[in-house]
Amino acid sequence: MTAAETRYDPDNIFARVLRGEIPNETVAESTHALAFRDIRPQAPVHVLVIPKGPYVDAADFGARASDEEITDFARLLAKVAASEGVDPASGGSGFRTISNAGTHGVQEVPHYHVHVLGGATLGRMLPGM
Predict the structure, then answer these.
(1) Picking from 52-56, 96-100, 125-129, which range would have the lowest pLDDT averaged per residue?
(2) Average pLDDT of the chain, as a whole number
(3) DSSP secondary structure string, the chain?
(4) Which residue has the higher pLDDT, 13 or 6?
(5) Domains of the chain by range and CATH?
(6) Where is the HIT domain (predicted)?
(7) What is the pTM of this model?
(8) Dihedral angle at the C-alpha atoms of 10, 12, 18, 34, nearest 10 degrees?
(9) Active site (catalytic) residues
């Protein structure tokens, strides 16, 4: 068992969403991923995309997920950006994806997830950048 596997909490809020214990506003779903609206949106468009597998963060997902899971996740994220009207390739004005990892990354839920934010100018990612 890897260190990430031992850190995964099967009772985290996203695992509970995946089990149907906590309702969500689903935006899209695929074989290996789920996209739903954030309950505390930080932009007009704020959708979370999560894998259905038990991955702690982006590094864990990249290291342990199958090629099929990784491809499916990326394609669902692209579908969400297009369907939410923020994908520049589909006529949108742009979006940002954010994935936090660990303490310094201020990760709040120990289940890999990507925030898709858009619908407004978001400003710089970090002060001074």
Answers:
(1) 125-129
(2) 94
(3) --HHHHH--TTSHHHHHHTTSS---EEEE-SSEEEEE-SS-SSSEEEEEEESS---SHHHHHHHS-HHHHHHHHHHHHHHHHHTT--GGGT---EEEE---TTTTT--SSS--EEEEESS----SSTT-
(4) 13
(5) 13-118 (3.30.428.10)
(6) 13-127
(7) 0.93
(8) -120
(9) 113
Give the Cα separation of 79 and 126 in Å (integer). Answer: 27
SS (H, E, C) 29-41: ECCCEEEEECCCC
| Phi, psi dihedral angles at 116 (to 5 degrees) | -105, 115
Whether pLDDT at 24 is above 90: yes
C-alpha 82/C-alpha 116 separation (Å) is: 11
> What distance in Å separates the CA atoms of residue 18 and residue 112, rounded to the nearest whole number?
13
